[in-house]
Amino acid sequence: MTSLKHTWYMTLRHLRALARQPWYIAFTLVQPMIYLLLFGSLFQKITGLGHFGTADYIAYLTPGIVVMTAMFSGGWSGMGMVFDLDRGVMDRFLVSPVRRGSLINGRVAQGAIVAAIQALIILVVGLVRGARFDGGPLGVLALIASAVLLAAPFIALSNATALMVRKEESVIGAVNFILLPLTFTSSVFMAKDLMPGWMQTVARFNPANWAVEAARDAALQAHPDWGSIGTHLGLLAAFTVVAVALATRAFRAYQRSV
Predict the structure, then answer these.
(1) Is the dihedral of CA 202, 45, 54, 39 positive or negative?
(2) Could you tell me if 216 and 53 are in contact, meaning their C-beta atoms sit under 8 angstroms apart?
(3) Core-most of 136, 179, 180, 231, by most CB within 10 Å?
(4) Cα dihedral 156, 240, 10, 161 in deg (nearest 10)
């Protein structure tokens, strides 16, 4: 119970810091909006090739942009950890009675909340742009859950990386090195059946693709395959558990080094 309370306190701390810079969420949405509006217009006729499950490319693209935004937002979370390390904030936490696990879990919880807010904003823009979600409210909730469950493990891994390298440049390099290939070997922009064979194989083991397929199936289909959606969400939840465990180990290693 104490761990949950401390996690909640740390989550509130990070949310208060975010409240002091509300433009952060707006700035993180600039690139996704460009993808949604420009790519949506550029490739609007590509659904004529088939395999997209919908004739409306905006409807197809919107869940992908939601998932991609959540993943990148999670990936950049480690920058806040580097900032706290440089200012000595983390060292002050180490001499406080706060539970050590909550220092990681609080960041994961705060990032998950941000991912949910970003998802809602992108969905509204998608609706304004003409997207329709036949899955209804339950499908939209599953879409948001997919985004949150993808953001969470990358938040943990980003913070683990920050604890190990402790440099902004290294975190930036690691984020781009990992997240860009994950994006383009998933069905964020393109139907999986139209991708090269080797990319389809990679997509089967790509957590970004798990989230995209679950989100898209839930939001776009009037009668979603909840078994497949549940499997993908379960895989993402398992990935989150592993990532948080790795981040906790990285934190313990940092604690031993100071």
Answers:
(1) positive
(2) yes
(3) 179
(4) -10
